[in-house]
C-alpha cells in the first residue's frame, strides 16, 4: 500500500555521499522543474531553476539528465540554460545526449496504427487542438477546458484506446491535465536504470511529480534518493516529498554545495 512520503529537509537527508564522489541527478520537467501551463510551450522553469541547472551542468562530479514525457527536442527548446545536458524524452524512448546525438526506439507498426486511429477519433470529436503527438505516444490535454469538455476528451480517448490500443500493448495513463496513450514496454524506470548502469558508483537521485515518475522511483528503490515534487503530497513510492519552487531550489542548492566538496 502506498503512503504519502514525509517532507524532505536538509536534516532528513544530508546528501553527505554527494560530496564523496560522483553523483547522478535525474529530474522530471513538467510539474517538477516547471509549473504546468495551459499552453505547454509556455511551461518555462520556475525562476532560479535555470541558473542552478547551469551550475550543475558544469560540475565535473555531477552527471545530470532530464527524464520527460515530452519529446526530447521539444524539451531542449524550452530550457533557458547556457549548457546542454542529457535528455530522455517520450518516457525513455528517446535519448538526446549533451553533445546533440539523438537516438530513439520505434513503436511497432500496429501501435503506430492504433495511435493514428486515436488521433483521428479526437479530431473528429472536435478536439484536434488538444492533441500532442509524440514520437512514441499521444497525449490529449484538457487543462483549461470546461469540465464537460474535459470529460468528453477523456471518454473519446478511452473508447479509442479500448477499440484499438489496448490489444496491441498500448498503455493508457491519466496525468495532471490530460490523458496519454503510450507503449508499455519502455518507461522512465528504464531510463533511470540505464543511467544507474552507466554510473554505478554515483550517488543517485530522481525527482518527479506525476504517476509516470513512479516507475523511476521503483527503479531507484534501495539504490538512490527518490523525491516527489508537488504542492501537496500524495501516495507514492518516493522516499521524500518537497514543495516547489522554494523547497526544490533549496534541494538543488544543497546538491550543488555537497558536490562542490567532491572537487576540492
What does this protein structure show overall?
This protein is of the alpha/beta class. The protein is about 30% helix and about 20% strand. It has helices spanning about 50-55, 70-80, 110-125, 145-165, 190-200, 215-220, 245-260, and strands spanning about 25, 60-65, 85-90, 95, 100-105, 130-135, 135-140, 170-175, 180-185, 205-210, 225-230, 240. The strands form two sheets. It has an eight-stranded mixed sheet, with helices on both faces. The protein has a four-stranded antiparallel sheet with strand order 6-7-9-8, with helices on one face. Helix 1 links the parallel strand 1 and strand 2. The longest helix is centred in the middle third of the chain and has 19 residues, at about 145-165. The radius of gyration is 19 Å and the shape is globular. The termini are far apart. The model has no long low-confidence stretch (mean pLDDT about 90).
Please outline the helices and strands.
Blueprint: E1 23-27, H1 49-57, E2 62-67, H2 72-78, E3 86-89, E4 94-96, E5 102-104, H3 109-124, E6 131-134, E7 137-141, H4 147-165, E8 170-175, E9 178-183, H5 188-198, E10 203-208, H6 214-219, E11 225-229, E12 240-242, H7 246-262
Parallel strand pairs: 1-2, 1-10, 2-3, 10-11, 11-12
Antiparallel strand pairs: 3-4, 4-5, 6-7, 7-9, 8-9
Helix pairs in contact: 1-7, 3-4
Distance between the termini: 43 Å
Sheet bearing the most strands, described? 8 strands, mixed
Which percent range fits the helix content? 25-40%
The poorly predicted ranges are none
- The global form is globular
What's the count of strands?
A: 12
What is Rg?
A: 19 Å
Amino acid at each position: 500500500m502506498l503512503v504519502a512520503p514525509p517532507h524532505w529537509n536538509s536534516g532528513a537527508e544530508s546528501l553527505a555521499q554527494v560530496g564523496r564522489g560522483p553523483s547522478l541527478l535525474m529530474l522530471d520537467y513538467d510539474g517538477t522543474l516547471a509549473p504546468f501551463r495551459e499552453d505547454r510551450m509556455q511551461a518555462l522553469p520556475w525562476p532560479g531553476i535555470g541558473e542552478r541547472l547551469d551550475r550543475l551542468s558544469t560540475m565535473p562530479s555531477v552527471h545530470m539528465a532530464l527524464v520527460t514525457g515530452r519529446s526530447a527536442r521539444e524539451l531542449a527548446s524550452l530550457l533557458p540554460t547556457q549548457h546542454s545536458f542529457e535528455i530522455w524524452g517520450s518516457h525513455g524512448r528517446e535519448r538526446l545526449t549533451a553533445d546533440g546525438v539523438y537516438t530513439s526506439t520505434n513503436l511497432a507498426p500496429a501501435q503506430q496504427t492504433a495511435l493514428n486511429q486515436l488521433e483521428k477519433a479526437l479530431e473528429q470529436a472536435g478536439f484536434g487542438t488538444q492533441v500532442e503527438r509524440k514520437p512514441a505516444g499521444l497525449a490529449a490535454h484538457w487543462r483549461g477546458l470546461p469540465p464537460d469538455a474535459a470529460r468528453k476528451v477523456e471518454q473519446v480517448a478511452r473508447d479509442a484506446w479500448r477499440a484499438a490500443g489496448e490489444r496491441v500493448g498500448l498503455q493508457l495513463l491519466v496525468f495532471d491535465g490530460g490523458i496519454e496513450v503510450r507503449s508499455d514496454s519502455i518507461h522512465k524506470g528504464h531510463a533511470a536504470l540505464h543511467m544507474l548502469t552507466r554510473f554505478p558508483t554515483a550517488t543517485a537521485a530522481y525527482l518527479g511529480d506525476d504517476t509516470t515518475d513512479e516507475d523511476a522511483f521503483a527503479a531507484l528503490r534501495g539504490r538512490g534518493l527518490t523525491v516527489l515534487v508537488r504542492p501537496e503530497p500524495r501516495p507514492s513510492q518516493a522516499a521524500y516529498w518537497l514543495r516547489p519552487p522554494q523547497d526544490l531550489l533549496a534541494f538543488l542548492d544543497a546538491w550543488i554545495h555537497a558536490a562542490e566538496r567532491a572537487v576540492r
